[in-house]
Amino acid sequence: MRSDFKRISGGVCAPKGFKASAVQVPIRKLKKDLALIVSEKPAAIAGVFTRNRVAAAPIEVCKAQLKKSSLCSAVVVNSGNANACTGEKGLQDAWAIVRETAKTLGVPDSQVFVGSTGVIGQFLPIDGILAAIPNLCASLSRDGGGDVAEAIMTTDTAKKEMAIEFELEGKSVRIGGVAKGAGMIAPNMGTMLAFITTDINIAQPLLQKALSAGVQKSFNRVSVDGDESTNDMALLLANGLADNALIAEEGDAFERFQAALEFVMVELAKLIARDGEGATKFVEITVSGARSEHDAEVMARTVANSSLVKTALHGEDPNWGRIIAALGYSRIDFLPEKVEIYFGDAPVLKQNFQIVLDEAKAKAELSKRDVSVRINLNLGECSATFWTCDLSEKYVEINGSYRS
Amino acid sequence: MRSDFKRISGGVCAPKGFKASAVQVPIRKLKKDLALIVSEKPAAIAGVFTRNRVAAAPIEVCKAQLKKSSLCSAVVVNSGNANACTGEKGLQDAWAIVRETAKTLGVPDSQVFVGSTGVIGQFLPIDGILAAIPNLCASLSRDGGGDVAEAIMTTDTAKKEMAIEFELEGKSVRIGGVAKGAGMIAPNMGTMLAFITTDINIAQPLLQKALSAGVQKSFNRVSVDGDESTNDMALLLANGLADNALIAEEGDAFERFQAALEFVMVELAKLIARDGEGATKFVEITVSGARSEHDAEVMARTVANSSLVKTALHGEDPNWGRIIAALGYSRIDFLPEKVEIYFGDAPVLKQNFQIVLDEAKAKAELSKRDVSVRINLNLGECSATFWTCDLSEKYVEINGSYRS
After folding, report:
1. What residue spans in chain B does CATH classification 3.10.20.340 cover?
2. Active-site residue B191, yes or no?
3. FRET partner for B400 with CA separation of 20 to 30 A, picked from A54, A99, A295, B263?
4. Cα separation of A207 and B285, whole Å?
């Protein structure tokens, strides 16, 4: 089914009518850190936000904007400073960015959204940011997607963007996406920054529905360290310029869009896991044979979040005991004696605790850059896949000194 | 209140009527790995066991024994092999150890309990173990407490034992305890091996009640890596030789015993956190000003389990933002703007996000071996303390190669 989603370049600028830019302001020293995405026609917008009780100022602002109009012309994002735990002044700063951008672009205040990522508890260098906005707006370009991908990076080591094109009822529709996130990534909610653009013509409630469902199967299924950020958000903008007949209810067209969107989001999610802080391996964990998708998802997540499993994978140690122990504390009911475990194509454990581990074969699978762990519960027909990375000494090194 | 619990030596052999021994069997190569604790008079026994759905064979055996008689004459424990995920043969092996020990000591089968810790998914070298039991029983000594503490160690770097003495209605009562656990320690349930002996005279239901309550405030409040073992157990033996009037109902005597027991268990729990795999710091996290003890406990646990907090502490980085972010995803309702945070005596964050962090002072607190993090929610009167350690490169190194 997915084979007809054609990959194209351009990231968030790939869909019709989107431009982007990025500039350097006095937050980080060595790279662009303030980004702008603009839709020439006000786009329907959907959002998913962190469930962290300590939500950053930009999260509050976006939630308020969504309630007002659910139309969006621009998204402004900075990296290097989270604008979280900054109280009233933090909120004022975020609103000031909204107003200055709206004024410069000549759009209503209600159509500008903001995002931040970085260190908690420091005020934004707001004067520098406001002073940079005219230049940011003047630099907008159809080629700006990559600049946004770079500007929102913090400890990320690689840009995370992608775009696809597909046919819908004779029209060509595009979806582009950009994400950041390498640490503080947890499998509940937004989990990072992601901005997705599309030129599809769709009613806002369905746009929100597609985003919320997609997040469950993509960003909520990656995990780097189990920590949940104060700033996570995923925004999805649809400006309608693909000129397809408005999707106003569920049906074939909606399902096709949802599948395409999920494809983009899963690819972005995998890029995040692949770039986990200190990661030397990309790990795909699949639990099958479960009684429900929920069971499979919880168990895959528990294995993915186990420090002992992640360090064993780092050490290329086929220590399946830690995997079954993690399944055991997932609080999901299952029969341990029915469990089967594979590393890649190498079987390790068969039913009734039959250990069929071939150390050399298992080591060979685990020595790859991309590792797959497959667990069959042999209880039902449901499955779920989760993406994570190994836990390395480098993770500790990075996070022991991030602030400094 | 606790000042009149006099610390004494002897570990599990400190209370009257207990002996212990340890020998080397062909499991581990360099140290004693099979231990025995014996009460000369059958003791009332209470137990708390892992909630991991994948429970090891010795867990199943102990649960069955407890249902039969709740009397115990002997506990046999091996390290280096968990006897978990070993199916029917694993159970047979555990029962064979029970029978051989009972026969050698001349006590009923129902009065022998077993425990194991180590690698999952390998069969015990059962012939070697059975052959060693006569020698193990012949070596029993009033001085054997330390041998047990050593024999149950796996990745532990230090023995964990303690004993106290206190007066109860004119009688001298003793409690001794031994524990192991450095990795795969999580804050739910048993979380490690702990064997506690006492010569108090108490009815079994009250003994179980005291143990279960004590576990909640001690072993369930330490965390090294958030993983929960297949083999966790805490056993408490009371042989009555202190000759106090039988404690058959709740009241002053029971409360005094419970306080003494909790004191011993908390000290053992702290020893476990202090010896966390790769730990360079012992960390005490206290959440106060909570609406309930449950709220305080969940929040302290969430902070203690955050990889980002633990790496920051390792790096001696006063990164309070990660602490408040962890509070935020604890799913407990609170007001972020009321939170106050201290590192030791150094205030870091006051109400309304007033950052009072003095970097030099905070660094000085964090550079200590014992670090305290105090969080005041300013919402209520309840508090809870949790113990953990930092997350170091060494943890990754140890766990990347444990099996080999």
Report:
1. 282-399
2. yes
3. A295
4. 43
Count of alpha carbons within 13 Å of B40, Cβ hemisphere only?
Answer: 11
Q: Which amino acid is at A345?
A: D
- With CA atoms as reference, report the closest residue to B197 among B152, B244, B162, B166: B162
Are the CB atoms for B393 and A396 separated by under 8 Å?
yes
* Residue limits of CATH 3.60.70.12 in chain A: 2-274
Is the distance from CB of B48 to CB of B233 less than 8 angstroms?
A: yes
Dihedral (CA of B211, B213, B219, B220) sign: positive
User: From residue B12, how far is each of B174, B198, B261 by CA, in Å?
Assistant: 10, 8, 13
**B367 in contact with chain A, both atoms CB, cutoff 8 A:** no
Q: Looking at the domain that runs over B282-399, which CATH code has it been given?
A: 3.10.20.340
CA distances (Å), A197 to each of A200, A259, B158, in order?
9, 15, 57
Tell me the pLDDT tens digit for each residue of B337-372. 999 999 999 999 999 999 888 889 999 999 999 999
Strands B34-49 and B193-198, sheet pairing: unpaired
The CATH number, out of the four listed (3.60.70.12, 3.90.180.10, 2.40.30.110, 3.90.340.10), of the domain defined by the range A2-274:
3.60.70.12
A49 touches chain B (CB under 8 A): no
Give pLDDT tens digits for A191-228.
479 999 999 999 999 999 999 999 988 888 887 555 56
Predicted structure pTM score: 0.80
